[in-house]
Predict the structure of COP9 signalosome complex subunit 8.
Amino acid sequence: MENLETPSCSCPYPIVATIKTDADLDAKPGEEGNGRDAAACLAMDLSPIQNAVASGSYATIADACDELMLQVASRGIAYQEDWPFTVHLLGHIFANDLNSARFLWKSIPQGFKESKPELVAAWRIGQCLWTRDYAGVYDAIRGFEWSPEVAGLVAAFSENYTKKMFQLLSSAYSTIGVADVAHFLGMSEDEATNYALQHGWTMDSPSKMLTVKKPRIITEQKLDPSRLQRLTEYVFHLEH
């Protein structure tokens, strides 16, 4: 089968990738593509995914990957080494779509999982999220040396996750121990204390307890229509 030439670029994976049909995978060595002309070898344009990663538009990665996967699947094409499984999986995790992340993980061939440690490391984050192992999420993030291609995506997820956990703590607690905050935020006690103080919490040093600054909740007061009618009638009687 003729190889497609991949243009040189700084993207984390080829913009144009060589992929095989299921028929090619079943063919004997040397027989790939015989009699299959255009259907035997197709170009897979990964530029939408590459652009999303390069621009930091991480929230769009999962949809871009899903759309391309549907296009490929509709042509009966098997995924090869160039498919960005790790980016795809992290895209779902970033979007907090754990169901899609689990489905994707189960669909990935075992051989890919065994040969790509970064893919396994990405799924470890998903596992910890699924089991609500808060400290484990941070351990999974810090326990792997991420490639430059996905390091920004992982860092952005980590930052968002920390903010989300802090918001949950702010809503659920009035006072909370420093050790507990450190656990939920994946920080040392000193780091957790400084983070909380920067967000307006107060600290009782002897007890090592933090008092939560509750987020300001602005509620919109809606006037009951029946009350409005009674008020209108009351004003009418006063004027007459």
Observations:
- Residues 1-83 form one domain.
- The first strand starts at residue 16 and ends at 21.
- Residues 1-27, 32-42, 234-240 have pLDDT under 50 and may be disordered.
